[in-house]
Write a structure and sequence with these properties.
By secondary structure, the protein is α/β, with parallel strands linked by helices. It is built from 14 helices and 13 strands. 47% of the residues are buried. Bound molecules: nicotinamide-adenine-dinucleotide and 2'deoxy-thymidine-5'-diphospho-alpha-D-glucose (DAU).
Length: 416
């Protein structure tokens, strides 16, 4: 790999009052090395007024709603929805590496974004089972839900730009699909936790400060609005039926196996092909980048220590403007920066996402990846796994039609 050129990313990271996730907390507090133990006194859960005592779903609300001891994951069977996608496949790898006796059912429809190549190395593992199906299929969902003790729900339509072209599938999968899963959960009292994977985009954009879990949701894109609908539906099912739902809201993930329509893999793979890198607007929008491995660790942490009925932000405080990342990718690949093309902005483009992550940090989780090194590792992964992304870019009709419609004739894509 070429030597990184230019200043280090840490020097570009936004450090002003408008940046850097508020950690260490203000004022500084000690971070517990293990999650704190709760009083098992039946005290009500706090989030949004939900009381554990109103739990009709399980006879022992303390068992399901406030873990005073660590929830056991090893030896359990989990349902992972959307496990053939980017985060889902990383998560399955992570679980199989970490837990010797875990069993996983991966329910995935294999949309254009689902890819069994992501799981090739573990497909013969006796602890892993793939079920090809749709989360909107009520009978199928009921039948798999009956078999498991825990659920992690990733399946969704996820690309903001596609939701701008056509929002229909987003509403159907992200909202209705989540409803089907939650409804099946009502009939599966053996399920100890249901992690609903929401997103930081549900809060909308903000120029300064950080969103806490108590902030109102104000989504801007059809994707984010669908995710906000699902997020609130999951919450409503906790309040109404006492279901053991935990909501997580991660920031922008990056890492191996990310479908190349997303910013970092699109720019890396286009640069490797000496193709233009379409940067929206002025390239000054800010995202808080979270290495996918850290997100997997956070979700695992919340399976064990999260309180049901609660929402948790997951972020690493790596706020960087898009243009800095685009430049760094060119430098890491020893490609000229004039591959970067400024193109008309995404409609309704959120300027900045920023999360206050003190809540999950107070449980003992913290991100481990150094952003700059994780970006280098990610760039190297795409360089060394060309066959993985070339198969998508060269053989997938879904890729080609989206790319042609969205980028091919976009002003600025051709060199003036
Ligand atoms: P992805 O697009 O890479 O994968 C989505 C997976 O869901 C695919 O395998 C797809 O086949 C499957 N799927 C889609 N519709 C389905 C259906 N109807 N039934 C069954 N399976 C279906 O997504 P990702 O980036 O891995 O995101 C996973 C989850 O995390 C999503 O809920 C997303 O909203 C959320 N999230 C993602 C990020 C991010 O930066 N990628 C950040 C925060 C939250
Ligand atoms: O914040 C979490 C969200 O992150 C997830 O919920 C979504 O599923 C995920 O897709 C992602 O959404 P973003 O819109 O933030 O990610 P995306 O990779 O599409 O874009 C990141 C930034 O890069 C954003 O400011 C838009 C910009 N961008 C993106 C593309 C694809 C460009 O400038 N050019 C591009 O071609």
């Amino acid at each position: 790999m070429a030597e990184p050129a230019g200043p280090s990313i840490s020097s570009w990271m936004i450090q002003s009052g408008a940046g850097s996730c508020p950690w260490p907390p203000r004022p500084r507090e000690p971070v517990p090395s293990v999650p704190p133990v709760e009083e098992a006194d039946g005290s009500p859960l706090r989030y949004g007024g939900f009381r554990a005592a109103s739990c009709a779903h399980n006879k022992d609300p303390m068992l399901r709603n406030a873990p005073s001891v660590e929830r056991q994951v090893d030896g359990k069977m989990l349902l992972v929805t959307g496990g053939a996608g980017f985060i889902g496949s990383n998560f399955i790898h992570y679980l199989l590496r970490k837990y010797e006796k875990i069993e996983i059912i991966n329910l995935d429809k294999l949309t254009y974004a689902g890819n069994l190549d992501n799981l090739k190395d573990i497909e013969a593992d006796p602890r892993y089972e793939f079920v090809h199906g749709d989360i909107r299929d009520k009978e199928l969902v009921r039948s798999v839900m009956r078999r498991v003790q825990g659920v992690v729900h990733f399946a969704a339509e996820t690309h903001v730009d596609r939701s701008i072209l056509d929002a229909g599938e987003f509403v159907l999968t992200d909202v209705f699909g989540t409803f089907v899963l939650l409804d099946a959960l009502r009939e599966a009292p053996q399920v100890e936790f249901f992690i609903h994977v929401s997103t930081d985009e549900v809060y909308g954009s903000r120029d300064e400060g950080f969103f806490t879990e108590e902030d109102p949701l104000n989504p801007s894109s059809p994707y984010a609005a669908s995710k906000a609908g699902a997020d609130r539906l999951a919450y409503a099912y906790t309040v109404t039926y006492g279901l053991p739902v935990i909501i997580v809201r991660p920031s922008n993930n990056f890492g191996p196996y990310q479908y190349p329509e997303k910013f970092i893999p699109l720019f890396v793979t286009n640069a490797l092909e000496d193709k233009p890198l379409p940067l929206y607007g002025k390239g000054t929008n800010v995202r808080d980048w979270l290495y996918v491995e850290d997100n997997c660790r956070a979700i695992d942490w919340l399976m064990r220590w999260g309180k049901t009925g609660e929402a948790y932000n997951i972020g690493a405080g790596n706020e960087v403007q898009n243009i800095r990342i685009a430049e760094k990718i060119c430098d890491l690949l020893a490609k000229p920066r004039d591959l970067i093309r400024f193109v008309p902005d995404r409609l309704g483009h959120d300027r900045r996402y920023a999360l206050d992550c003190r809540k999950i940090r107070s449980l003992g989780w913290k991100p481990e990846a150094d952003f700059e090194r994780a970006l280098e590792t990610t760039v190297r992964w795409y360089r060394e796994n060309e066959a993985w992304w070339r198969k998508i870019k060269e053989k997938s009709r879904a890729w080609r039609s989206f790319y042609d419609e969205y980028y091919r004739n976009r002003k600025g894509m051709k060199k003036e």
